[in-house]
Design a protein that fits this description.
Strand content: 35-45%
Distance between the termini: 32 Å
Structural class: mainly beta
Radius of gyration: 27 Å
Mean pLDDT: 76
Number of strands: 45
Number of helices: 2
Low-confidence stretches: 1-79, 439-444, 458-478
Number of domains: 4
Amino acid sequence: MKITRDKGIIENASAPTSADVYRVGTIWVDTTNDLSYTLTDVTAGVSTWLKTAGIGSGSIDLEGDYLLDDQTTTNMMSKGAVYRFDGTDDTIVVPDDASITDILSSGGSASAWVYPVSDGENDAGYIMDKGTWIINVTTEVSGYVPIKFTQVFSGDNGIWTTGAVLPLNTWSHVRVVYDASAVGNDPIIYLNAIPQTITEASTPTGTFTTDSGTDFTAGNNAGGTIRTWDGSIAEVELTNFAPTAAEVKDLISGNIPFKWQYGSQTELVTEANDRTFGGAVVNWAAWSGGAIVTDTGEGKITFDTGGAYSGAQIASVGTLGKMFRITMDMRSDAGEGDIAGILVGFDVNKGAVNENFVSLTSTEAGISVSAEVFGGIDTFALQVGINEGTGQIIFIDNVSVVELGAVALYDQTSISETTWYDKANGNDGAVTGAEVLNDADSIASTFAWHVGGFDFNWSTLDGSLVGNSGTGAIPITLNDNIFAPVNVPRLLNGKQIVIDQITVYYFTDASGDDFDFSLTRTDQDGTTTTDAALIDIGSGETGNQSATILSSAITLSDFAYYVKINVTNTNATTDVIIYDIKFEGHLA
């Protein structure tokens, strides 16, 4: 749970008494105990008061967000559809796919909201199973069950357990974070975003065993039905990165930063010769005076810096704002001196978040480089370079770039009686027996969704969107384009969403003021399509008005949608104000 200053206004924000109750958006904080309170919004400098005991200790991040170290999770899963497993033979099976293969091999995680009624079939109910890694519970102790994690290795398997910490008949969040690349690594088992004390029941030896070829199973054991979960499961997520403790707190609340949304295991260095240098390179090229050639199965990079960075690059890899894992083997040339400050990353030398610094000594045979970095700033170029030692040489091999994030995401809008929909990569699961509770039939078949001023890249402090205001509010430049994401889900509880109408509520104060509206979608290869447009809205009008956009309904596709508005004013002292954009639709 994350209480954030911009999610709502804190009512009764004075020093609390023992009877005070505080409301933060839709979160109620009960302060019925004699507790100590002090919290300052470090961004705005506004003193606010929140409960910091009874729930747990807390901290403030640099955005003024208050992070609770202990989570109160009761009823956080009380709305939306979930799957109920019968403890006998129910199961959900997701076919094996590259998007979910070996997600723990270089650091990853798996999580779910769970509501255990008992310890499950054979006292070992499985939450999820990928064949070579398993998350399950074991024998109940006084209304609580231990959490167990198993990773199969070529020698002895790794097995770790918590104490009896997971309560029965209560919603709790479980996440396991693990890096299977080394036998000395231990998992972190989180319960409601709190790391638990674990016992290593079996120490792994050898190397981790791939789960390639094994289906992913929720609520039972892979390939069978002898470890059926007894209770409910929802919000299953698999990631190919290992979230930090702070990120686990964000992810438990569904507050997934864009950089971690929807990852992929797809290799982004697409040409084999660019990865393993079995022949002439295809997309690698000289960068800023450097050079690269294939040399006996390796990429040979020569630097010629003259005081600036040089080396080699692939000119188009990555996506702005996303996170990627770059890996490669690297060695120095025989007889070279020490090489310090080698940069590996996207658009290097433009910010430390995009770079990884590597050093090679003159006697070093080779190292494996791994870096988690943001996508490119300008050119999305994967670059390897240094700024010293003209003529120095390094060799690289086994180059890889993959996008990090949620490689499988089955949230509460993904559930139907027969299909479990994956919002990340479309790797849907088949449901056998598991009952849908709180399903879409209990939800109204129509809905309304709103985009307001705060959703745009320019907005006023009152939440309206103002173009060329002469009143001191934040202005939009004449004829400027402004954008806002449309976060209407494509599916709601497994049913398709159809937009029936879009209504724009606005104000103009001069007869020549108007604006153009368009609804555009961008698919995964960058193709953009305008699905709806209306021009010259507000032309010849003054005062508060509204306009409808659609002449026919739009069925949402599995793409990103955004609104674009182009503002036209007669002069810089008149206003075009967008108050609200309302999307109305139904479930098909």
